[in-house]
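Extended Data, panel c. Modelled sequence:
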Amino acid sequence: MRRMAPETLVEPKILAPEQAGERLDRWLALTFPEHSRSRLKALILDGAVTVNGRSVTDPALKLKAGDAVVLALPPPAAAEPRPEAIPLKVVHEDEDLIVIDKPAGLVVHPSAGHETGTLVNALLHHCGASLSGINGVLRPGIVHRLDKDTSGLLVVAKNDAAHKKLADQFADHGRTGALERLYLALCWGVPMRPHGTIDAAIARSTVNREKMAIVAGDKGRFAVTHYEVRETFAGADTKPVAALIDCALETGRTHQIRVHLAALGHAIAGDTKYGDVETNREIRRHGLRRMFLHAARLELAHPLTGQPLVLEAPLPEDFRAAALSAGLQAGL
């Protein structure tokens, strides 16, 4: 929806002849380098860009020579996120921590393009002031994160003492402590080996800055994912067509499971960033509009008492419905 009263209207920029055919989002990124491409894309989708006086919402729109482009910058967001009454599915809560079963589509903390409607806004409403302040006002109590389209278990600290102990556990990733995180991913195709370890360093892609990539060890951050095929699914010809995979992390890099499974040749179904077009078209045909990745199980030591906590989140209904449609219902 178009912002009704933007604070700043940037003077029209006229497209030069040599820029004809450029995508709108790319042209904006080149013209306004002070804003990230993701931020500009969000503004386009929000109706804050006009071309020749008409609002456009297609980032891939091809521009023509002489087009007049106007960017409407919205008022600055508040310095601190505000509480919002967003429903939360609480798996565990006590005076030291809260564990949420995060739905897909919910952004964890405020950022450019997602100033409101985040998990942090929901937590501020649910917990009030009882959240750890170690990570500042934009990430109160946040110990780790899940991608927007990843569902499942996420831990939040309610005080600084719990935050420090939890942060130590997540930094250790279970190498010497109790922490264990298990994710479930569905991919088309079945890995040659039923279980294994992907040990490959990860860094920001030099080709697409919105993606991560596997790089030589000395050029990226150490990353290890252990996987095991939980179940395989056959098509009409009885040949295996998909696999449900358990993924356990030994490190916690950005997009780690997504990058590692894609490198294995079995990108997560519905992952439009690292998957292939045919795989994603197939899963969308069965009704799934997002990536099939779920943080299903979490085991950790309570940060203050040391007692073990074992928590589980069932597969979301959209996963089950898509699997049923695709004939993959066994075990789901």
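Confidence is low (pLDDT under 50) at residues 1-6. This feature is highlighted in the accompanying rendering.
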